[in-house]
């Protein structure tokens, strides 16, 4: 494969993109290490989401039009497909949080295919980790407040099982609830955005390299395949970006409900 890529590119070796895609220096020389492109666009997305829904609902009309119409469609989707199936009567109380999570993460993800930005914010583990920890602390707080410190921990364990089973079940249940659940909540979003960005970058670079950077007769077919696969994967990535925002918010609703009411 290495020899073929060298031959197709006219003697120069094609270098696949790597982890340098996720390494961003400070925005300006001497600036703080944390002030990078992902941080700026993460904040930018937050401002856009807040501004849009403020614009949509600041002066609601009986017959919605324009921004209010779009905002209500988004609200009903989150309410009916994410919140209500898990939260039931508690849906309205938690809608602001779930709306914010869903649309913020969706915006973060869509930055991967926006020209110039071309980077999914959630592909940096710090961003989904902060959101997952926030949901986790809300869940634990609600559990301790609504069920009490003792019942919150005992309600996690099913009743009426043989005593030996509890020696195996209790550690597994607590490990799953307090470590694995928040970890997988963050990593699921991060891993999908990270992998999707790497694959898109690889095939788009293949197309650019063999068609524009080092065009040769032998490499034309390879470059054309790279462009076609990039187009197909971009469409698929748009779907995945939406689904990952949906899954993150859905799990948040499920975790909140587990804090509000006993699981067993």
Automatic annotation (TrEMBL):
It comes from Actinomadura darangshiensis. Coiled coil: none annotated. GO terms for molecular function: proton-transporting ATP synthase activity, rotational mechanism. It is found in: Cell membrane; Membrane. The keyword Membrane applies. This is ATP synthase subunit a. Its main location: membrane. Belongs to the ATPase A chain family. Key component of the proton channel; it plays a direct role in the translocation of protons across the membrane. SUPFAM superfamilies: F1F0 ATP synthase subunit A (SSF81336). PANTHER family: ATP SYNTHASE SUBUNIT A. CDD domains: ATP-synt_Fo_a_6. The keyword Ion transport applies. One of its GO terms (cellular component) is plasma membrane. It is a multi-pass membrane protein. Pfam families: ATP-synt_A (PF00119). Keywords: ATP synthesis, Cell membrane, CF(0), Hydrogen ion transport, Ion transport, Membrane, Transmembrane, Transmembrane helix, Transport. The chain crosses the membrane at residues 39-58, 98-119, 125-144, 165-183, 189-211, 218-236. It comes from the Bacteria.
């Amino acid at each position: 494969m290495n020899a073929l890529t060298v031959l197709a590119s006219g003697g120069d070796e094609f270098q696949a993109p790597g982890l340098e895609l996720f390494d961003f220096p400070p925005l300006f020389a001497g600036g703080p290490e944390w002030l990078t492109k992902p941080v700026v666009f993460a904040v930018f997305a937050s401002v856009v989401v807040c501004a849009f829904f403020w614009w949509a609902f600041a002066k609601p009309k009986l017959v919605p039009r324009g921004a209010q119409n779009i905002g209500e469609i988004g609200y009903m989707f989150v309410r009916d497909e994410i919140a209500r199936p898990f939260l039931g009567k508690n849906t309205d109380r938690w809608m602001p949080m779930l709306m914010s999570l869903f649309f913020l993460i969706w915006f973060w993800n869509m930055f991967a295919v926006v020209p110039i930005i071309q980077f999914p914010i959630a592909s940096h583990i710090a961003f989904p980790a902060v959101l997952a920890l926030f949901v986790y602390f809300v869940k634990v707080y609600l559990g301790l407040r609504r069920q009490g410190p003792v019942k919150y921990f005992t309600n996690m364990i099913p009743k009426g099982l043989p005593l030996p089973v509890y020696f195996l079940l209790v550690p597994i249940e607590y490990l799953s609830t307090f470590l694995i659940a928040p970890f997988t909540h963050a990593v699921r979003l991060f891993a999908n955005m990270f992998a999707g960005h790497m694959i898109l970058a690889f095939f788009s670079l293949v197309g650019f390299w063999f068609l524009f950077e080092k065009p040769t007769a032998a490499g034309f077919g390879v470059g054309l395949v790279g462009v076609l696969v990039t187009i197909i994967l971009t469409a698929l990535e748009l779907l995945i970006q939406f689904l990952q925002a949906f899954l993150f918010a859905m799990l948040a609703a499920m975790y909140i409900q587990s804090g509000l009411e006993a699981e067993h």
